[in-house]
Design brief:
The chain is α+β, with helices and mostly antiparallel strands. The protein has helices at residues 37-73, 100-103, 193-196, and strands at residues 5-8, 21-24, 74-78, 93-97, 111-116, 119-130, 135-139, 142-145, 148-149, 173-174, 179-183, 199-200, 204-213, 219-220. The protein has three helices and 14 strands. The longest helix has 37 residues, at 37-73.
């Protein structure tokens, strides 16, 4: 920095000593707003590092929100197989509501995802037919609950029993406490409570409530109650 030039401004020598000094900046005085060249690169590096840190912080927050949603609120599932046709098809994607059953128990007609009794590492999707305490019977291809014939307009086939099934045609069973009786909508090609018996309520992951793929099938799933 060049040496500053100092002058005194006065019109009366008697008050000359009382007038403050006026500092006149040299024409070569550097601009205080100008960034020195030697600091330009360090400033850019600092800004880049701050950008990366802000970006990573955003990613961490987003992942944390996703984990909370996935664990406690909802979960995506891919439909595999044909056991729920014609209402759910292979390779469709749905969202499973994981919080509703914390507020109220399942109801008849709900489509639920649960841990398969024969292999807990696999999730099954089936429809709730009978609740705890209900009496369920299959007779001549028709399902009865508590003596009433179910009106299942969503089916394409009748309901028959396979050899060696848990149930016997025409014989009524009572669903035990804390269990549900479930069936697939494709009754001719579904392994369900007819074969392995009622499922434990605690094995339920959640309720299927939204189909989001393929996009032309996007929408909330229709509700069926008996």
């Amino acid at each position: 920095m060049e040496k500053q030039t100092t002058s005194r401004v006065s019109i009366d020598t008697a008050v000359n000593e009382k007038i403050p000094s006026v500092v006149i900046a040299s024409v070569n005085e550097p601009n205080p707003n100008e960034v020195p060249k030697q600091n330009f690169f360090s400033l850019m590096i600092k800004r880049f590092v701050n950008f990366i840190l802000d970006f990573l912080e955003t990613i961490v927050v987003a992942l944390s929100i996703f984990v909370v949603i996935y664990l406690f609120l909802m979960q995506p599932h891919e439909i595999k197989g044909s056991s729920m046709e014609p209402n759910f098809h292979d390779k469709e994607y749905i969202l499973t509501d994981k919080i509703s059953y914390r507020l109220h128990p399942p109801v008849r007609g709900d489509v639920v995802i649960f841990k398969a009794p024969v292999n807990p590492d696999v999730d099954y999707i089936k429809r709730v037919i009978g609740l705890s305490g209900d009496r369920v019977k299959v007779q001549n291809g028709v399902v009865y609950v508590n003596g009433d014939k179910l009106k299942e307009d969503y089916l394409k086939d009748q309901t028959f029993l396979f050899p060696g099934s848990f149930m016997t045609d025409g014989v009524e069973i009572t669903v035990p406490l804390e269990k549900l009786f479930v069936m697939g909508d494709n009754r001719a090609h579904s392994s369900d409570s007819r074969q392995f018996g009622p499922i434990v309520i605690n094995s339920i992951v959640g309720r299927a409530f939204l189909r989001y793929w393929p996009i032309n099938s996007l929408g909330v799933l229709p509700v069926v109650h008996y």
